[in-house]
Amino acid sequence: MLDDRKLAVLRAIVEDYVSTNEPVGSRALVDRHNLDVSPATIRNDMAVLEEQGYIVQPHTSAGRIPTDKGYRLFVDKLSAIKPFSAAERRAIETFLAGAYDLDDVVMRTVRLLAQLTRQVAVVQYPSLSKSSVRHVELVPLSDRRLLLVLITDTGRVEQRVVELPASYDEDSIMQLRAVLNACLDGRKLTDVASVVAELPDRVERRERANAAAVFSVILETLVGRHEEKIIVGGASNLTAADFSQGLREVLEALEEQVVLMRLLGESDDQSSVTVRIGAENDVLGLRTASVVAVGYGSADRPLAKLGVVGPTRMDYPTAMGAVRAVARYTGQILAES
Amino acid sequence: MLDDRKLAVLRAIVEDYVSTNEPVGSRALVDRHNLDVSPATIRNDMAVLEEQGYIVQPHTSAGRIPTDKGYRLFVDKLSAIKPFSAAERRAIETFLAGAYDLDDVVMRTVRLLAQLTRQVAVVQYPSLSKSSVRHVELVPLSDRRLLLVLITDTGRVEQRVVELPASYDEDSIMQLRAVLNACLDGRKLTDVASVVAELPDRVERRERANAAAVFSVILETLVGRHEEKIIVGGASNLTAADFSQGLREVLEALEEQVVLMRLLGESDDQSSVTVRIGAENDVLGLRTASVVAVGYGSADRPLAKLGVVGPTRMDYPTAMGAVRAVARYTGQILAES
DNA sequence: ACTTGGCACTCGGGCTAATCGAGTGCCAGG
DNA sequence: CCTGGCACTCGATTAGCCCGAGTGCCAAGT
Predict the structure, then answer these.
(1) Could you tell me the pLDDT band of residue A206, with boundaries at 50, 70 and 90?
(2) What confidence score (pLDDT) does residue A268 get?
(3) Burial degree of A217 (CB within 10 A; 0-12, 13-18, 19+)
(4) Contact status, residue B147 vs residue B139, Cβ threshold 8 Å
(5) Which of B52, B76, B125, B164 minimizes the C-alpha distance to B296?
C-alpha cells in the first residue's frame, strides 16, 4: 500500500515540520533530503499520503503537515528512540545522584526531564500500591488527635490526622503502635487492607474504638486522590510551543491531578516507552498535545510513571530517548535507597 | 500638589483601565464617573498627573494608563481593601474546613485563592523556623542508613536520609531516638541548633560517630532550600492577563523557589497586606507583575506567607480582600490542629 | 484663577486592493 | 512510473486610505 519511498517522504515531512514548524512542500523535501527524484514525483506520493490521512495541507497551496495518524505511523515504524551519548548519560546520573531524599529525587527528575526535552515534564511519585510498609508511627497531637505517619520502602512519607472518638493514654498508643508495626511492617500496601481487617482482635477491647479510627484512616490513605501524587515542571516550555488551541486549556489540564493520571496512562506495560498522540489522550483541551511516558523502577519492581507533555509537533525520538534514560536512572537511584 | 479632583481622576483611571484593559480618555471618564466637569478640565488634570509620572499615554492620541507609581498611589491612598460578604466568608471557611492534613490545607488554600482572585496563587508552608518539634523518628532503612523524620507542631513532616559512618544496632537507635525526643520535643526549631550542640555529651561514647551524623542532618534540614516550601496554583490564569513582556519569563520566575521567596517578601510585618507593584519586586521578568501578599497564622503565632501574583493591571482592592480573608481562615484552621 | 467650548492635529487600527510567491494538481511525453 | 511544464489557488505581505478617538492649546466666560 505504501512503498518505501512514500514512507521515506512521510518521515521527511515529520522531521522537517518538527524542526521548522512550517508546512513542508515538495521542493523543500527533495532539497533537504537526498531523495533523488523530482518534486513532481514527491507530489504524487504526497497526494497518496494525504488521501490515506497521514498528512494534510492547512490550506490549499501550502505545504503538508502530518496528522495524528501520520505521527503515529512515524513513531511506530519510521523512527527509532534516539539513544543518549555516554556523556549525556553521565550528566544525568550525576545530577540525580546528588539527591538526598525522595522529594528531592522527584524534583530533580522533573527538572532534568523538562530541561532535556524542553517540554513539560510530569513525574509520578512511587505508587503507594506498589510499595511496602516500612514503618508506622503515631504521634500525639492533642487530647483526641493523633498524627498517623506511614513510611514506605520507596521513601514516601504519608501523614494523616486521626480524630479519635475517645481520649487515650500513652500506653495504649504505644501498644497500638507496636501492633501496627508488628503486623504491617514489610507488607505490601495492597495487602494492608486485608491485614488491617483482622487487627481489631489483637487490640484490647476498651481500646477498640480508638484503634478502629486509626485503622479506617489507614485504609482511606490507600485509596482516593492521596494514593497518587504527581508533580509537574517546565511549564514555561509551553510558551515556545504555540498551541493551536488555547494555551489556557493545556495549563488547566496540567493542574488537574486526575487528568495527569490519565495522561500517564494506566497501562501495565512498564518497560517500554508509550506515546499518545493528540486525540489519543482523550482529554479535552489536550487535543493537540502528545504524551511520552514510561514506567520507572527496577525491572522486577515497577514503581510509577514519568513522562513529558508537548505539542503533537514534537521531536519524538529525542523525547523518547530522554524519557527512557531519565526513567532508568531515577529507577536506579530509588532502588539504591 | 494634587487636589482632590486630580486624585479622583487618577482613581477613576485606574479603575476603568483595570476593568476594560484599554487606555482611558477624558470623555470616557466624565461619562462613566459622575465628575461634573467637562472633558477639557479632566484633560488639564491628566496633563498634570502625567507630568508627575502617575499616568502615561501608550502613544499620542490614545487614552492614559496608570504607571507603577500611579498604582502605588492608588493602593496607598485611593482605595480600601474590599471586604468579603458574610456568604463569601462562609464559603471560604467550609471549603478549607474539609482538609485533613497540612498538605491538604495548603493545596486547598492555593486553589481557593487562585479561584477567588483569578490570579496565580502562591502559598508558603509554615516556616520551619517558626515551628517547634513535635516528634523525631528514626526509621532503619538499611545497614548504614536511617530515615530521619522530623514532625513539627505545624504539621510539617520533614524526611531526610542519614548515611551513617558505622553500622548500628536496634538498641543504640532506640536510645538515640529517646534522647532526641527528650531534648528536642517542644523546642522551637530556631533553638534546636544550640540544643543539638550539647547533645553529644548525652550519648555513649562508642555511638557518637553515628549520632553526629544524625545531628548534622538535623542541622542541615533547618537551613538551605529545604527550610521553606512553596506551592503555586492557577497558572492558567496567566493566559487571560496578557503580559506585555513574555508570558514565558513569568512562568519561569514562578518555577523558581528562591524567586517566590523573594516575592512573598522577607518583611516581618505579618499582619497587614503588602503590595509590590511592577519593578518594585526586583525580579527580572516580573517587571509587569504585582504581588499581593500577607502573613498568615494566629496573631501571636505568625507561620508564613501567602499571596497572589498578577499583572500590574490588577483589581487590587478585591485581591487584597481575598488574600486577607483566605489568610485569616487558613491561619485559623492551622491553629486548631 | 479655574473652567469650558472650540479647533486643529496626531496617529494607531482597520479596511481594501494589489501584488507576490510558494505550492499544488494535472497532463503529456519520455 | 517518473518528469518537466503550466495554469491555478490562496495565504501572506505591503501600500494606501480613511476614520475616529483622543490630545493640547487657546481664547472666552465665570
Answers:
(1) confident
(2) 65
(3) middle
(4) yes
(5) B125
* pLDDT digits 0-9 by tens, B174-207: 889 999 999 999 999 988 888 888 887 777 777 7
**Which three cell numbers mark B200?**
553529644
Q: How far apart are the CA of A277 and the nearest CA of chain B, in angstroms? A: 22
Q: Residue B224: pLDDT band by 50, 70, 90 thresholds?
A: low
∠A279-A285-A291 over CA atoms, to 5°? 55
| Chain B contact probe: residue of A133, A147, A164 with most B CBs at under 10 A | A147
> How many angstroms separate the CA atoms of B176 and B159, rounded?
17
- CA of residue A5 to C1' of nucleotide D1, angstroms: 13
Q: Measured between CB atoms, which of B135, B233, B234 is closest to A139?
A: B135
Place of cell 509587569: B288
Q: Judge: B255–A238 Cβ closer than 8 Å, yes or no.
A: no
Mean model confidence pLDDT for chain A: 91
Residue A313 CA and nucleotide D10 C1' are separated, in Å, by 25
Average pLDDT over all residues of chain B: 91
What DSSP line would sit under B217-240, residue for residue? HHHHHTSGGGS--EEEE-TTHHHH
**In the structure, what pLDDT confidence band is assigned to residue B300 with cuts at 50, 70 and 90?**
confident
Helix%, strand%, coil% for chain A, nearest 5: 50, 20, 30
CA of A238 to C1' of D16 (A): 39
Identify whether the C-beta of residue B152 lies closer than 8 Å to the C-beta of residue B304: no
Q: Which of B137, B133, B138, B136 is nearest to B154 (CA)?
A: B133
Q: Is the CB of B178 inside 8 Å of chain A's CB atoms? A: no
Radius of gyration from C-alpha coordinates of chain B: 26
Among candidate residues A170, A175, A159, A265, the one with its CA nearest the CA of residue A220: A159
How far is residue A310 from each of residues A44, A279, B81, B299, measured CA to CA in Å? 31, 13, 41, 46
Q: pLDDT > 70: what percent of chain B?
A: 97
> Does position A337 have pLDDT exceeding 70, yes or no?
no
- N-to-C CA span, chain B: 52
B52 CB below 7 A from strand D atoms: no
Cα distance between residue B58 and residue B65, in whole Å? 7
pLDDT in tens, B233-271: 999 999 888 776 688 999 999 999 999 999 998 766 677
Which CA-bearing residue is nearest the C1' of D8?
A61
Nearby residues of B231 by Cβ (< 8 Å), 6 or more positions away: B106, B107, B110, B122, B123, B125
Nucleotide with the nearest C1' to A62 CA:
C23
Task: Give every CB contact of residue A190 below 8 A, 6+ residues apart in sequence.
Answer: A129
Phi, psi (deg, nearest 5) at residue B273: -70, 130
Give the pLDDT of residue B225: 62
**Residue type for B315, please?**
D
Listed in order, strand segments (DSSP E) in chain B are 55-56, 65-66, 120-124, 133-142, 145-152, 157-163, 230-233, 274-277, 289-298, 301-311
Measure A218 CA to nearest chain B CA, in Å: 13
| Contact assessment for residue A185 and residue A137, using Cβ atoms and an 8 Å cutoff | no
Say whether the CB atom of B265 is under 7 angstroms from strand D. Answer: no
Summarize pLDDT for B307-324 with one digit per residue, the tens.
Answer: 999 999 999 999 999 999
Say which residue the cell 512514500 belongs to. A6
